[in-house]
Amino acid sequence: MIRDITLGQYYQTDSVIHRLDPRVKLVATFVYIISLFLFHNFTGYLVAALFLAMVIKLSHVPFRYMVKGMKAIVFLLLLTVVFNLFLTPGEALIQIWKLTITREGLRISIFMAIRLVFLIIGSSLMTLTTTPNHLTDGMESLMGPLKHLKVPVHEIAMMMSIALRFIPILLEETDKIMKAQIARGADFESGNLIRKAKAMIPLLVPLFISAFHRANDLAMAMEARCYRGGEHRTKMKPLHYEKRDTVAYTILVLYLVLLIIVRNVGFLP
Fold it and tell me: Contact 11/231 with Cβ under 8 angstroms?
């Protein structure tokens, strides 16, 4: 399951989505996440699903590879569904002991599950099609106006990029530690959920030590190269918009307009 997490990883291939300006992808991801909370009907989710399917198709990233990353949030997904299913008041459908499944709870739990899946896949699509360096440049450019408020924009963007880059590295390190402990007789599979959670505790100490070592090595490497971020720092590949980026922004606006129409008018109940 550790190796199935795709958030923060980059899938290298040649596609229109990969060649888009990182600022376009950051804005599109943010807008898409916000749009998932703008509607509460099946038509809205259908529009969001079609838009996401179009982007996945254009990205040339295998859909199976994206779905593989969903295994890591199955527990969170089930927890969200169960809480909404049994704790939402409304018209009773099924009575199980002292728990009641309501029509409203069933509707909300289905919508929340779909929304969470779309949110994870949409966010993963951004990191799968954008390198950490481009993410840093894109975030720094978008947060540029905050420099006038003395906000350390470059440092914030760099920290977020490093955090995303460290996700697959730490997952790989966790997998190596697990294999080493399994070879020494550790058992991470048998037992109930609490026992499995306790079995994971011995992983934390070596994982934290490895993370601190990597952070220290990165800091020393940056100091050895006299790295100084912020003002007056030039870029080898400065960002600039092209025609395809304008087309992408246009499609994004059309998507929002369609969602607003669906929200206010609606085509299906």
Answer: no
